[in-house]
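WARN  no MSA supplied for this record, continuing single-sequence
INFO  ligand: adenosine-5'-triphosphate
INFO  echoing inputs
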Amino acid sequence: MNVGILGGGQLGWMTILEGRKLGYRFFVLDRNPKSPASRIADGWFPPEKVGEFSRICDVITYEFEHIEEEVLENLEGNVLPSVEALRIKKSRANEKGFLSRLGYPLPRFEVCRLENLEEAVRSVGLPVVVKAERLGYDGKGQYRVFSLKDLGKIRENHSEGESFVVEEMINFRAELSAVGVRDRRGRIKVFPVTQNVHEEGILLYNWTPESSVVEREVVGMVSGLMEDLSIVGLLAVEFFLTETGDVLINEFAPRPHNTGHYTLDGAYTSQFENLLRAITDLPLGSTKLKIPSGMVNILGLSLEDMELEEILSVEGTRLYWYGKEKRDRRKMGHVNVVAKDQETLKSKLHEVLRRIYQKEYSLP
Ligand code: ATP
Ligand code: MG
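INFO  complex generated
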């Protein structure tokens, strides 16, 4: 079986590592032959060779949303999840519009152009988060706006005609997410819900909390949305749990997700293996939790910046190092953590954070 992956980042890298066990061959389409997935694939193709890439693959999936339209138009064959699902996700306006038409609970929002930013902000009501309509990830292209003066920075960084989503700033009690998997026959499984902590718009760590009252609501929305988008493969959904106990959708992603990395060590089947099982018509593996687990992202540090021996001497930890060039705040790797119970898990996460970043964190 030849599996194609659009995008060469760490999500593709882990998909390949997991897929080797199934005996599959992998081909990656990415501009960079040195990207994590390109380096370990059986073959690498630049975007110009999308035709050749398509012809060698029995099935194609993606690990990245922002695939150039030119590549999408020239793909041939079986792309799973569908290119339509990806197109909805590529634009925050389409994504929000889709969710709101189907009645999913969302923060209040408006779509506007740079010229009408102030009007949209007034209509949603301060404070708001302004997000560039396209090409956002890891908090890029996002602005927290507390007063109309804050709009100056957005006007400086962007040009007329560019589109934005302006959304109500949610004072959340917690951020949650869950990754679901759906096979070609429409059978669905959902991995355990995680609680996620972001720093400056980037995921810093997450863990599987004890099951809560909103678990059923979350699982229901993930399953419903997988059907609405006709997903074959994975769908990750991020949520805000508000102060009043409501669950709102922040965004979704039809691909493996950073908040599902813990499944490599904490679940009976990883998100990556289940993606491959779903798109190649194998039975889905159990998404159940083996053991309480979590994950800490390594942001903007190289291996030399850390004392690996100290970090990995915390029992139950495993390192995943993506081999990327170091950049400020970039996701360079992560450490998965498992523990016999919640309390031990929290204290281990705390310890791992401290040993990576050399500072104290107070976990919720
Ligand atoms: P990623 O790709 O890393 O998930 P992203 O760039 O796609 O991130 P979002 O998920 O929209 O962006 O936002 C990143 C983080 O910023 C959220 O997880 C949350 O912590 C914060 N955030 C985003 N929108 C809001 C909002 N409306 N109210 C409060 N916080 C928000
Ligand atoms: Mg997000």
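Residues 342-357 form the longest helix (16 residues).
INFO  checksum written, moving to next record
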